[in-house]
Amino acid sequence: MNDEILRYFKVEARELLQQLGQGFVALEEGADDAEMVPQLFRWAHTLKGAARVVSHARIAEIAHAVEDALQPFRDEGVPLPRDSVGEFIRLVAQMGDALAEMDAPPPVAPGEEPAPATAEGHAPETLRVELSALEELLDGLAEAVVRLGGLREAVEAVGQARHAAEGLLEQLTAPAASSGSAAERTRWLSRTLSVAEGLNGALTRAGRRLDGGLGKVEGELSRLRDASHALRLVPASTLFGALELAAHEAAALLGKRVTLQAEGGDVRLDGHVLAAVRQALLHAVRNAVDHGLEMPEERIALGKPEAGRVLVRVERRGARVRFLCEDDGRGVDLGGVRDAAVARGLVLEQDAASLDEAALLDLLFQAGFSTARSVTDLSGRGVGLDVVREIARNLKGEATAATWPSLGTSIILDVPVSLTSLEVLEAEVGPRRVLLPLDALSATVRLPAGALTWMGPRASFSHEEQAVPFLPLATALGNPEPPQPRPWSAVVLGRGEGRVAVGVDRLRGIHRVVVRPLPASVPPLPLVAGASFDAQGEPLLVMDMVGLAHWVRQGQVPTVEARVVRRRRVLVIDDSVTTRMLEQGILESAGYQVDLAASGEEGLEKVSRGGHSLVIVDVEMPGMSGLDFTRKLRAMPALASLPVIMVSSLGTEEDQRRGREAGVSAYIVKGEFDQHGFLDTVARLSGGPTERGR
């Protein structure tokens, strides 16, 4: 079978199975049979035909069975019995399992070693891309091509300038330049000036065209970069169909009823993050239905709705995203967890009594741990929440749990994201432009002078008959402004009694941006979630709205000056420019500030100014050698203890002995140079690339 056809089948089958699952869930929740049953029939019929094309007998047989079972209800217009919906959901799940097996590695014959996994062997990831996003990308490419074509004029102008430069060179080397009559020299000077003016004009035109053309191309390429990144971003709502189907499938197997409530579907994230999180949430949802929700009769006796509720929420928290799965069931039986831990030998009986709630809940994430007394299709195998934690670790995140007796349990998955897309409100704060995520805002208000009531550095104003705490955003950015009666544009965060507001100078409008985390080399900035880039490539800070709201309520914000990060300065002395550049690149990449000197004399002059944490010096240099430099340094009381690393091509025992006698702290032979060892030595002697102060 053609691989291309199989790939298309998998994409189509996944979509049809998702539609079938969501359709049967909708029927169970009261959808109109007259509309839904014919649609379900068509989806099953389409899936059957597609499966037969690729000779997938198992999916084709199940789809045909679904089609046959639905046909009488479609033809006669009779409502589908609600007690049969669970069986249909199980059939959809079976087809999903059969589809998943298509990407599973082939079975290994007895005695054979499994083939090593390779990148080429992985199934390619596929994402649905909105046509409008693809059209935007293609429009940007077309515009960039036009802009690049315009640069041809600049290239032609450069060619004219080169021709004029050749003419000027000919004039300057002509015999009349040094000999000939006064009239000949006058004519020569006139021609030379004319050629020079032509050269100046050609260079001016070329510069103008290059400057304007390159600026426009850079703007288009910046827009293309963001559009390309946006193609990778998928709305979190794509998770919800599979989670809803999993919840209803588990409930049908256990004789329970469930409703799944989903929030935060508009959060857009990396496709590979959502693909991994999907598996974690599937386990969490099944676990919630199985272990969390009570049976219908028990819920009724407790005064709860017959159908249990599972909430799945996706929300941004700075540079991280939180996935929450919460049920309204019985809560975790912590005593049962303690007993199971002792029975499985995870803790000693004498130590079990001292385990607090956090330690007991942490046991739920242990591989192989289960409180179920028997093995069923859903329970007892110890596979579930351990998968959630493993996926969290793979994503450099964390998984935690919380529980409340008789009220329910929450499983929380926090993961960092490399990219996310969101709508923002752009605002001006003094000379800065910042981005405020729109989903955290409830209103914008124009406050005239005198509308604020100040109490020290913070203020409040009346909004919808409620006093709302207010703080200038400039204060959060480390530039406090004294209270003064002036007009403000206020941005209101949150809703209800928890509302707070920040003041900005001007609102610039709403647009969608791609947000990236700050580079690791940038010190942590208070209340900043990440950065985006405008059309000119300028970085704009994206504010952390959760943290910002918290600090407004507290009446204070952290400032960058509260914890100053200083880079340690290293002086590199070597007469070889190659060695200087090599060592400078390595040190600056590691976070050090580097000064350079080409001789021992220059190095001694620079180091005497102070401020260096370490010196790296060569031995053989013109003038003052590295050994002489070290001896002079050791004779200066203020610098006698400054660490010195000698890096030299001289590597004999005698050479190293002379270095030690001169007072070097470490000796590195260039022929044995190792970057990691070099940096380890530098860090050991200097104290590391940064020093932190308060």
TrEMBL record:
Skewed-composition ranges (Low complexity): 110-121
Keyword annotations from UniProtKB, A to Z: Kinase, Phosphoprotein, Transferase
Residue ranges constituting the HPt domain according to the UniProt record: 1-106
InterPro entries: Bact_Chemotaxis_CheA (IPR051315), CheW-like_dom_sf (IPR036061), CheW-lke_dom (IPR002545), CheY-like_superfamily (IPR011006), HATPase_C_sf (IPR036890), HATPase_dom (IPR003594), His_kinase_dom (IPR005467), HPT_dom_sf (IPR036641)
Domain called Response regulatory: residue spans: 569-685
Ranges in a coiled coil: none
Leading EC class: transferase
Origin superkingdom: Bacteria
Domain (CheW-like) ranges: 421-554
The Histidine kinase domain, residue ranges: 167-419
Matches recorded under Pfam families: CheW, HATPase_c, Hpt, Response_reg
UniProt entry tagged with the keyword Nucleotide-binding: no
Disordered, as annotated region: 103-122
Phosphohistidine modifications at: 45
Record protein name field: histidine kinase
Organism the protein comes from: Stigmatella ashevillensis
